[in-house]
Structures are given as structure tokens and as C-alpha cells.
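Protocol step 4 of 6.
Sequence for glutathione transferase (Dibothriocephalus latus) entered exactly as in the expression construct, tag removed. Do not edit the line below.
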Amino acid sequence: MGIPHQLPYIIDGDVKLAQSSVILRYLGEKHGLGGKGAKEQAEIAMAEAAIKDLRTAFGCIAYSPNYEKERPEFMPKYEKGIEDIANYLGNKKWLMGHSITYVDFLLYENLCVFQIFEPSTFKKHPNLKQYVERFEALSKIKAYLASKRFISWPLNGWSASFGGGDAPPK
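Step 5 output, C-alpha cells:
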């Protein structure tokens, strides 16, 4: 593997990869969820970058020892990022339209985190709530969420000021 001692990683036959976004893209493409044609693949990459930008900014305050102070300063950026995602989704079933792609998995995971971070997210953007409900209604996702393998907490590493520790906020 190119980078030793790096998590997560995947070994799939002779393919050895690290980096979560690379693994997600590889598995998506392997299973036909990588988009059709150059235009859709570019749109998927654009959506992936926007989601990751928001999650990275969120991660900076989630791990900050000054989380409570920095949260209010972060909220305008968060609200703009969520609004952009909600507007891009619009009334579509999935981010790219009628076909689910690997970036839908990334968005779903992040929306679950963001809903805990800011419970009003779905009230302000009902299309995001409907999107999460559609995703959770997929038979294999529904079975996974009901299984013992599903871990709902922690959202971040144990050292995070938000999303770490033993229990979710009340």
C-alpha cells in the first residue's frame, strides 16, 4: 500500500487503497454507482467536494477545545453549506436525479451527523429530511440500520468536543 499504517484501508484482490474518499469512489465505481459519462462523473465529484468542504469545516469546530465559543461563528457557514446542498438536491430523488450514486452515501452519512449537530436542519430543508427517509427505506440500508453492526455513536473520534465521548447530546 502506498501509505503505511493508514486507516481506513481496503484490500480487494490485488487492489490496495487507503483514504476514505478514495475507497468510497472505488467501491461506488466497482458496483456501478460512479455515474454515467464524463458530465455526471464531474457533477458527482463537485457534489462530493461540496459535502467534504462542509464536513471538514464542521470537523474543525467539532474537535476544537473552544467548540462552544466557535459554534455560533460557524453557523452562517454551516447554514450556507446546507442551503447549497438542499438547493442542489431540489426535488430530485437522488443527487444526480433518478439513479443513486456513491456520493448519495456520503451525503446521507453527513446529513445524519448534521441533524444531530443542528436539529433544525430538516425543519428548514424538508427535502433533506425526505432524502434521508428515502435512503433509509432502501432494503439493504434498512436491514443494516436494524442490525447489531450499526453503530450510531460516536460521530467523531473520542477526543471531539462534539460527536465524541460516550453518549449523544440530549
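Step 6, annotate. DSSP finds seven helices and two strands in the chain.
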